[in-house]
Specification:
This protein is an alpha+beta fold. The chain has four helices and six strands. Strands 1-6-5-4-3-2 form a six-stranded mixed beta sheet, covered by helices on one side.
Length: 162
Amino acid sequence: MKSLLLALMAVALTACHSPGQTAQTQTTQTQTAQTQTAQTQTTQTQAAPARVQTPASVSGTDPASGLEWIAVSSLPPQGQQTYRLILSGGPFPYARDGVAFQNREGVLPRRSRGNYHEYTVRTPGSSDRGARRIVCAESVQQRVPECYYTGDHYASFQRIRP
């Protein structure tokens, strides 16, 4: 569309010049208009790169929950230990480990009542259980449970990538 417009402008400019103007000047004007069209098209191509959608595994977001992934190896050492205990079925060091987590904050995906269970991630230097937890959803279909890590006592979560 722009090249057509520029070509029409070149023709209009040619028609406006005096009858004594040479054919060489007219050719130069047409070439200039074509060069400007090519430059405009190149600039537009460079300015608007193609949008590439990346899968959730690349972008770092769990599509089911909308939460960021965290690798087991990126958990604090105490979190890695708790996660291993969860996978092996215990024994757990705290009496409240394994109790139902209600998801009152609504940060995790909705599940039926009693589906989530919380486990304490030991916090060095803390005199109580601390703020760190791993919360897992029961799943009959999955061999590895769907688990989430929070380091701020349920204010935010990350989905643990097994």
